[in-house]
Amino acid sequence: TGTCRMKTGTSRMKTGTRRMKTGTSRMKNGTSRMKTGTRRMNWNLKNKLELEE
Description:
The structure is a single chain. By secondary structure, the protein is an all-alpha fold. It has a domain at about 25-53. The longest helix is centred in the middle third of the chain and has 51 residues, at about 1-50. The protein is rod-shaped. The chain has one helix and no strands. The protein has one helix at about 1-50.
């Protein structure tokens, strides 16, 4: 039973690490999207100001 438990534990650990990796990658994608969004917002604001002048 000990070896079986060890195997299930290791498999669980592997799935956990995989989930962590996917989570971090998703976080990175989210931050990059946020950055691009803010850049676009600033760009639009600049264009609006230039047009108004």
